[in-house]
Specification:
Elements: E1 4-8, H1 14-20, H2 23-32, E2 38-42, E3 56-59, H3 71-85, E4 90-93, H4 95-103, E5 107-110, E6 116-124, H5 126-129, E7 140-147, E8 149-153, E9 159-163, E10 171-175, E11 178-181, H6 189-198, H7 200-205, H8 210-215, H9 221-224, H10 226-233
Parallel strand pairs: 1-2, 1-3, 3-4, 4-11
Antiparallel strand pairs: 5-8, 6-7, 6-9, 9-10, 10-11
Helix pairs in contact: 3-4
Length: 235
Amino acid sequence: MPRLLIVKTGEAFPEVVAAHGDFEALFRQALAREGFAAEVFDARHEAPPDLDELDGLYLTGSHSMVSDAEPWSEALKPWLREARARDLPMLGVCYGHQLMAAAFGGVSDYHPAGRESGTHTVTLTASGREDALLGALPERFPAQLTHAQSVLEAPRDAEVLARNAHDAHQALRYGPRQWSVQFHPEFTPAVMRAYLARQIEALRDQGQDPQALLDGVTDTPAAGSLLTRFARLLG
């Protein structure tokens, strides 16, 4: 059994936590369905653990913003660079995606087109179709998304594995076993609807139709498979 660590970078909305569990609980639920377990490290309140004790790590989403450069977030960057230098497998999600990209030489900041929320189609690139993690997914698949910031510039040595109409960097690979995705593989349709319900006014202000987004929420089994696919790749 691989020694997995979930790096907690934030908390979900209270009603989401009460009904479905926090970010790390959603990760753990998905992993447990296929017999995997993971420890949790709260990056906001604890020092980064020893990398020698790990076989792989996940980085969760957060309501924080990478561009705010909070001290706890900045402290993770050299730790992530060391993990990458050791070829430690990593999978970053949403905030984790943006933080990994920033740590490795990219730029993460507010998307000029605003927030992307709801279930949206993501398309694999040619590199993505050949990738060890994402390559087993359909070329086009639905994914759950909620983010105001994005990876605006990928690190020079990163491979773009997936994109969509809103975001050119929906998935990146930084090395043989280091990946990150903008979408949320841990989200269920119920969690996605809860997020949209919280964002109705902001989405209206942005010129979007919240009810259409709510009606468009679907299951996302391909995207959701990534958490356990990553764990299985560790052998």
